[in-house]
Specification:
The protein is an alpha+beta fold. Helices cover 34% and strands 14% of the residues. The radius of gyration is 19 Å and the shape is globular. The structure holds flavin mononucleotide. Flavin mononucleotide binds next to strand 3.
């Protein structure tokens, strides 16, 4: 599977087989994912591998759209720590964006190995204590992980056409290749 295939075919998985993800596979996924970029190569992230159902259930209590979390075989919490020495990056919260970037790498590296994932949004205020994460750090992502029960491919309708997302030079300025008729129909409403 090449990178493009992994990006396009990845689905968010909410229904997992009971079969656990072996530690060797998990380590392989994280070894790949850790090559994500970060400010001054600070790698301001830590991962917590959660297999304990009781902890998963406690996290679930703070996930409005994550009722499946107590049933998943495991999850990985991605924590944004600090960019050391170049503190300006923390002031502009770049450490958190870097953690989101590495979370994406985890999802794609897992997919390439046949392992499904699904980002579960949590009320961040509530999660640090459950996971013993120091108050000054942020749990950026909770990613459910396991072997999917089924995988349904995306349909074209699952993403907006590129034309709706791309501007040229400044926000709102039409990208030259956009078809006039399409703009009439969609953008001028
Ligand atoms: C920041 C973020 C938060 C998300 N939160 C949730 C969530 O709380 N519960 C959930 O089931 N899926 C969540 N998702 C997954 C999205 O629902 C999913 O990515 C989207 O519907 C597109 O489907 P696909 O990932 O299968 O292409 C989240 C995804 C992202 C990137």
């Amino acid at each position: 599977m090449n990178v493009g295939e992994a990006i396009v075919t990845r689905r968010s998985v909410r229904d997992y087989q009971e079969k656990p993800v072996p530690d060797e596979v998990l380590v392989d996924i994280l070894e790949t994912a850790k090559w994500a970029p970060s400010p001054v190569n600070s790698q301001p992230w830590r991962f917590i591998v959660i297999r304990d159902r009781e902890i998963l259930t406690r996290v679930m209590a703070h996930a409005k759209y994550g009722s499946h979390l107590s049933e998943v075989p495991m999850a990985i919490a991605v924590i944004a720590t600090d960019v050391e020495t170049f503190h300006w990056f923390n002031e502009i919260e770049e450490n958190k964006y870097a953690a989101a970037v590495v979370a994406t790498s985890i999802m794609l590296a897992a997919w390439e190995k046949g392992v499904g994932t699904g980002w579960v949004s949590v009320d961040r205020k509530e999660i640090n204590d459950i996971l013993d994460v120091p108050r000054e750090y942020t749990v950026v992502a909770v990613i459910a992980m396991g072997y999917p029960v089924r995988v349904e491919p995306h349909s074209d309708a699952d993403r907006r056409p590129l034309d709706m997302m791309v501007f040229s030079g400044k926000y709102g300025e039409r990208f030259p290749r956009i078809d006039e008729e399409w703009v009439e129909e969609h953008m001028k409403k």
